[in-house]
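Researcher: Please generate the 3D structure of the following complex. Treat every line as part of one assembly.
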Amino acid sequence: MRIGIVGAGIVGLATAAALAAAGHEVRCYDSGEPMAARSLGETRIFRTAHAEPGMVELALRAQRSWQRWEKQFGTRLVDPVTTVLNGAEATVRATAMQAAGAPFSLRDDAAGLGLPASDPRGPFLVDAGGGVINVTAAGCGLRETLGSQVRAHDLVRGVDVLGADHVRIAADSGAWDCHAALLLAGAGTPALAAAVGIGGVPHGRWHSHRFTFALRDASARPPCWLERSESWRAGVTSYQHLVGPGRWAVGASVPDADSAWELGRDGTRNRAEDIVRAYVAEQVDGVVPDVLDTISCDSMNLGDGLGFGRSGPVLALWGDNLMKLAPLLGELLASAALDRDREVRDDDVPHLVATE
Ligand SMILES: Cc1cc2nc3c(=O)[nH]c(=O)nc-3n(C[C@H](O)[C@H](O)[C@H](O)COP(=O)(O)OP(=O)(O)OC[C@H]3O[C@@H](n4cnc5c(N)ncnc54)[C@H](O)[C@@H]3O)c2cc1C
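Model: Done. Output below.
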């Protein structure tokens, strides 16, 4: 079959690779450079710790998919430093992990965990399967595998359904007729999906910024850390992890009013930087509170929510925090595109809206 994919972020590339491996002719379009929108940057956090057993099970399956990619690309893609989550949510997520059979421990204090902060508030959930995803290596591996099937700087202006097995993709490089199309275009998905009758894709966009600091101990290898206690300031939580030797990234979930789309990228970056620098200076004594670099992009503010829709031969997937699930999403979406009788099952994609 010929299958077109709109979007060469991690989800589009993962899906294209799964389809190409099954012998299908694939074109994966991106309006800009692949992996340069929501998939931008060197690293992300992998975790199985979620609030609901269905999501934990999905993450456990994704963990096996990451291991398959590691074998295929011959390199480590998830550095197993573990992931720690603290605050009241820790017990909720521990319950979900127990129900799903994911390995974890729950403890009252942070002694021995290696977090770069001297006095974080518990309880602490240690997600034994968590770690740092090497996004650069995953993206490079996928692009090498796909070669010229990835079409960079080729904007898709529209996708038309011409029959049960006939889709026309109108791209800047020209029109391409194929049997099915997948809309995996991040911020571009709502408009493309609406035009083919896939409703319900959230349109909301918020700015998201992540800042890198130097670890005082350059040889330290702290676990990834989801600081959810709000002990520093109500409404502010953060996610933190090692992005490279001696380099510690901190992103904050700030109030909607500080990340609203209308405020623009620079305005929201300044607000987020003020919040993160103040938090780091007061609470994260293992890092030097000077920003070394920043990555910025947009998000839908869905937390761990994701959704899926189909209109005949066109499929769409949207959501946030998709990196950790990407190789599995690629496999699921490839099989959904090939098998018209098989919808992506409810237990494959359990969240249509945010629940966390
Ligand atoms: C700072 C930050 C930290 C994050 N931390 C984590 C984390 O720790 N763990 C985790 O799991 N996730 C995390 N995420 C989320 C995760 O990175 C994203 O959910 C994931 O990368 C999204 O991938 P995607 O392929 O869906 O979208 P994208 O990477 O945005 O890819 C979509 C692509 O479609 C292209 N496109 C759009 N419209 C068109 C069009 N009309 N024609 C052609 N191409 C088009 C875009 O150029 C883009 O490259 C984080 C995100 C950010 C920004």
